[in-house]
Amino acid sequence: MPRLARIMAAVDEAQGDERSPTRLCEVATTVIGVAGAGVMLMSGDVPQGSLCTTNTVSNLMEQWQYTLGEGPCVDAYTLDRVVVEPDLAKPTTPRWLAFTPRALEIGVRAVFGFPLHEKTVRLGALNLYQDRPGALDAEQFANALVLADIIAHWVMDAQAAAPDGSIAEELDSYSDFHYVVQNAAGMVSVQLGVSVTESLVRIRASAFRENRLVKDLAEDIVSRRLRFS
Which residue, among 39, 14, 43, has the nearest Cα to 144 in the 3D structure? Predict the structure, then answer.
């Protein structure tokens, strides 16, 4: 059976809500053979949030990349090419100076980012990790490329069916788009008299200094437990 047909069959046979993107991440782990997977959607150069993750570790990886603005998903999207790091503890070229130590702390040893795009539209990246060092073999790599295309098509098809100016229900209901962060950025913008973009930069900087996830910090801002001045 051709690779695409075989992987599509695995997606169709996966258990769970057919509308949920989580099925796509779970199929990625089994078809590719990795410890975990996640999908980050992006717009411009800004991570928008996580489409799906498979476990606590992959969820934290997405959260830290969102908080720090660096990591395999960010690079795969920005460079529009596959990004691999088969030995995060001993990389040939050190990178992700803020992300790497946090990933290692939660047991990540190898990471792989595959860009998601539909023709010229860039959507984000498929993020894979292993709990031991080592590169993907040729079969795993080819499967990951196909999964990235399938996920990109799924996102585009879901959004195409949504009313103009709205987010598709499948994306809005099942994904984590960090709306609380956007709300917090608006509040900080008013508090400091700066643009929303600048306020988001300051929130992320504060989260980095305090070694916190930006989402957690944003919740404190929205609940008025924290005020910027």
Answer: 39
CB distance 73 to 80 below 8 Å: no
Where do we find the tokens 């080592």?
Answer: 134
In this structure, what DSSP letter does residue 225 have? S
Residue 29 CA to residue 146 CA, distance in Å, equals 13
The predicted-structure confidence for 96-131, as pLDDT tens digits, reads as follows 999 999 999 999 999 999 999 988 888 899 999 999
Residue ranges of domains in the chain: 3-166, 179-222
Of the candidates 61, 57, 55, 12, which has an alpha carbon nearest to the alpha carbon of residue 40?
A: 61
d(CA 82, CA 73): 9
Task: Give the Cα separation of 191 and 154 in Å (integer).
Answer: 39
Instruction: Say which CATH topology domain 3-166 has.
Output: Beta-Lactamase (3.30.450)
Within its chain, how far is the Cα of 190 from the centroid? 29
- Of the pLDDT bands very low, low, confident and very high (cuts 50, 70, 90), residue 132 is very high
Q: How many residues does the chain have?
A: 229
Residue 183 amino acid letter: N
Residues contacting residue 91 through CB under 8 Å, at least 6 positions apart: 85, 100
Judge contact between 112 and 84, C-beta under 8 A. Answer: yes
